[in-house]
Specification:
The protein has eight helices and seven strands. The chain is an alpha+beta fold. It has one domain: Aminopeptidase (3-Layer(aba) Sandwich), CATH 3.40.630. Strands 1-2-3-4-5-7-6 form a seven-stranded mixed β-sheet, sandwiched between helices. Strand 4, helix 7 and strand 5 form a beta-alpha-beta unit. Helix 2 crosses helix 4 and helix 4 runs antiparallel to helix 5. The chain is globular. The C terminus is likely disordered.
Length: 218
Amino acid sequence: MSATLDRQALLAQAASPRQAGARDAPALAGLLTQAFLADPVFDWIARPGPARIGALEQFFRWLLAERALPFGEVWTADGVVAVWVPPNAPASPGGFWEQMRLLPMFLRLCGLARMGRGSAMGAAMEENHPKAPHFYLAFIGVSPSLQGLGLGSAVLEANLKRIDAQGAPAYLENSNPKNARLYERLGFATQRNIAPTLAPPLTAMWRDKTPPSPCGRL
């Protein structure tokens, strides 16, 4: 099969992503780890050195298991995954004991020297997160060997059709300035940089809701 046909097959699959389940978590955590290994924001908050890979993978396993997969809005195709949190998802638990439960994981992710950075970034994201109900794109990741083929765009377009059918808005934080034009093409508008002082840019982007189709089809 030629490279062109390979790409067409991948794009066709990405245009109809499947809903991920618990059994997909290990593979998807690995995919997200590779996709975000050199991400500017993760590069700033995550510990340097070879331990970063294992720490990132543990973080993504936790995120998928506790904050994403239970709500049914993780969508995947070969080499790509979109992690959404829907409007009806319960708020993340807070409080002292929850922080203590998660402390070892975040200490492994950031290392002691960068815990302050991780805390500042998390606080900035929480402070600026919209209060109105919306779909939240927590992560969109593409395998490094398949980046640039349009797989991420195809999955997001399919996801946004479903979101538009529900008449819901969407929100994301863009950690890579190179992706801004892609998100804008999909209807997201840049709001502001929400990153703490000295951190790489983290841009809040909002997409207004689209009225559902009269026929009600997804």
